[in-house]
Amino acid sequence: MTKIKKLDQETIKKINQNNVLYLLYRHDQLTKHDIAKKLGISIPTVVTNINELIELGFVEEAGVGKSTGGRKPVIVKFLPDSRYSMGVVITKDYVRMVLTNLHFEIIKEVSISIDEELQSIDYIIEAVKEFQKNVCEELSIDENKILGIGFSLPGTVNEKTLILENAINLGIKNIDFKNYDFNCPVYIENEANASAYAEYFVYPDKSNSKLIFVSITEGIGTGIVFNSLLYKGANKRAGEWGHMTIVKDGKSCACGKNGCWEVYASSKALLKTYNKDTGLKRRNISEIFMELDEDYKTQKVVDEYLEYLAEGIKNIILIMDPDKIVIGGEIAFYEDYIKEALNEKVYKPNAFFTAKDCKIEFTKLKANASVIGAALLPVMPLFFNNNITI
Ligand SMILES: [Zn+2]
């Protein structure tokens, strides 16, 4: 009995400390009185927690606020540079590594392109270790101040066992991240999931708790934030909407099926269709959008592309009924060109939903959603006692 009681007290203590630090992260600075009021805990509990957090270097006392009668209240300030986090994005073509502070500001970053010969996971791991070592030396950061390394990966990820189970686009499977020693905790997550959580966490608003992030690049990945947690499903494969059938017996997909959404609505699909229909050899989709205003053929290809994109989004809205869909990945750079037409196609009058029920937005994190999502992972245990996934 005594043991259970002790454990409970420790858990409560941990939860209180998480809550105090998270509150200060969100507000930057607050008086101890404000903290007690907002969290519904006693002033002595706040004082104990603040003293511990000062000792750990996460916060500091920063002067006094206005008195409302008695003694002037002491202001406590969150210190974003007290710890750091590393985020790593691995794609088919490049590896991007960043160091962020606790406000998720990128302090240092390095990208390396990888060709097929060098595309072994061991090569990538060595590059990450080198970045970790160099960044500490260059910026004179104590290695212990790096909370951990988060990896954002294009495939099925078991974040608990630290195994990348399958990454079709990288051509690798069953990569066990427990085998790599980084001298700090390691976290892994699927790319779209990491991006979804980053969008939810960095830009919190009331309509964010049921959010679907649709990452559109080479393929289509989606991440589901459900009631503020990442929904991963029974086998960690939830949100593989890139492979839902959008055209029966349609074009073949790398997954082995036919007619998958990503074969019609990824940025790669847009480029492929455009080059096939026009006989031109554009190398990237930016060249397509540059011609959009003047060229009828280009308008036709993009319009058809958006029809497919809209079909998939409509299916997601019908299945999940989210507060918002956030479009990310390469296609999101062309928001100004596609937003209006996409909205028109998705919200065509129907029996179930209107634009008021579920908004379509474009990522506010732009090209950083995935890498910030990776860097978030080692920081979350500071703020939450429970896992961020269900
Ligand atoms: Zn597929």
From TrEMBL:
GO terms for biological process: D-xylose metabolic process. It holds the Pfam family ROK. Keywords: Carbohydrate metabolism, Xylose metabolism. CDD domains: HTH_ARSR. GO terms for molecular function: DNA-binding transcription factor activity. The keyword Nucleus does not apply. Transmembrane segments: none annotated. Residues 19-61 form the HTH marR-type domain. Transcriptional repressor of xylose-utilizing enzymes. Belongs to the ROK (NagC/XylR) family. PANTHER family: BIFUNCTIONAL UDP-N-ACETYLGLUCOSAMINE 2-EPIMERASE_N-ACETYLMANNOSAMINE KINASE, ROK (REPRESSOR, ORF, KINASE) FAMILY. This is ROK family protein. It comes from Clostridium cellulovorans (strain ATCC 35296 / DSM 3052 / OCM 3 / 743B). The lineage of its organism: Bacteria, Bacillati, Bacillota, Clostridia, Eubacteriales.
